[in-house]
Amino acid sequence: MAAAAERGTIVADQLTRVFNGKVRAVDGVSFSVAKGEVYGFLGPNGAGKTTTVSMLTAGLGATSGRATVDGVDVLRHPEEVKRRIGIVFQEMTSDGDLTGRENLELSAALYGVPRGEVTPRVNGLLERMQVADAADRLAKTYSGGMRRRLELAVGTVHSPSVLFLDEPTLGLDPQGRAGFWKYVQDLRRDHGMTVFVTTHYLEEADGMCDRIAIIDHGHIVAAGTPAELKDRLGGDIITIRPTQTDANLVDILRAVPGVLSVTAQDGSFRVKCQNGEGLVPTLVDASTKAHVGLAGVSLKRPSLDEVFLEFTGREYREDEGMSATDRAVMLGRVQNRLGGRR
Amino acid sequence: MIRELGALTRRELLRLARNPQAIMTSLLLPILYLLLFGQAFNLSAAVPPMELLLLVRGAPTYFSYFAAGMAGFVAVTATLFIGANVIFDRLFGVLKRTSSTPAGATAIFGSRLLAGIIQPVGLAFLVLGLAVALGKAGLSGLDVTASLTVVGATEVVLAVLILSVMFASLFLAIGFTIEQPQTYFAAVNAINLPVLLTSAALFPWGLMPAWFRSVASYNPITLAVNVIRENLFAGATSYYPYDASVYLLGLTAWAVGIIVVAILLARRALAPKA
After folding, report:
1. Residues of chain B with pLDDT under 50
2. In this complex, which of B4, B14, B273 lies closest to A110 when CB atoms are compared?
3. Where does residue A117 rank: exposed (0-12), middle (13-18), buried (19+ CB within 10 A)?
4. pTM, two decimal places
5. Structural domains in chain B (count)
């Protein structure tokens, strides 16, 4: 890899993992994450996100390729990597039969936090994560949001230089998510922590990550800042749904000044253009003059959902692996976002 | 390593202390055996004293022989579930969390072993104490006829300890290797029952066929209970071809072999998946 990439806090170079000799869960993935950066790994279930995190955190060997975290080769020195990183898994991994405080004390001891620092650090984290009142209750009695916050506290009690978050906000309500991300941003600001996060939630990736990689079928299909990725779409998307099929409509729409491209999709027409808001009346007018009735017109600003569609050929919410609830929540959020451009 | 071992052992002990039902349940089996079966299987009433000495290798009564064997029996049976906790910790994500920390496989394995042998060792000596108390209460009881020396008492403690450590290691290794609880219990039963039934823990030595004795004499539970019986019963030494220390050595050899294999299996299970 290039020398610049080698200087990254997290570097993956042609990282590959093959299961059972044939399933290429991660296939030649390369990227570099700079110190203090929040790097998002976006993709549907089964895309290879968790497998990548498992390899980078020394929980899973790589079939080929190499990776370094905080300058340490993950495959050669997994124990050293474990000392330098913190992990928040997508499932609950704190011990339900221990209290919140005991979970943090255990984690502090396992990561070698100096004995004299354990109590103040644990108390500080309990306060900060708003579980101080329940500190001496068994973790299994916590609400979902409290348990997630405890997970984050357990993963960061040793102030790691690199934090891996694997679907960290799964199951949290919007308020819980906001609080969670505020703490992550605080950690980054106060400790210069590098954060690698995988997520289903497009709006989270959009709002919280400095850079994003979209992974699909084990390959990175696009990478860049959220703004760069959206810019690559080339403009807004207007979807026109005619009352009846009219083959001439494609040519009519293409002829409108400002239209960049028109594609037919499931009986609708996807018009890519600059300044979509200003162009909608013109497109409606052109359709009316051509005696084409319209059943609906919608405008989408560039969003990561559109980016995902552009680079993978399918809508993000069509992911079969997502639960119906997650789909519904995400759809609502994406629709809400259409009101304003980033 | 020491700090990690201490922290993880504390976690195991906290969990144990928070589950009094499990402790109470584990007490039921030995108490039932001593109060019901030990009292009912009274060979002393049916067999002349000299013949009985041959049958139970110098123990004054069958109950005394039985009680000493029960100490070895519970030292094994109380370790049966130790690996199941590993499986449930894996299912609940706790093992994933622990494995992701710098805590090494030795600390993870060792902490469970340290905490896991408290119960079987404690139960074994509770059985011996209860059996003596039953005798004092006028029931069939453990009659310690030898004057127990410091060396003898140490040998008894070591025999129980080594036996517990050995089987706890074995069942822990199975727990680290197997992912499904059902498979674990099937595997544990496949080991536990044959080993217990081919030992001299409860069955009178003098009633065993010759071939069965040959098998039983190498059984680690037999080796452990031989150490206990030789030290508790006066004149018992003449019924055993070797000194108690020899049986202790044989038990140690078994334990070292099993523990080494167990640690290797646990390290392999906890290493990053290749």
Report:
1. none
2. B4
3. middle
4. 0.79
5. 1
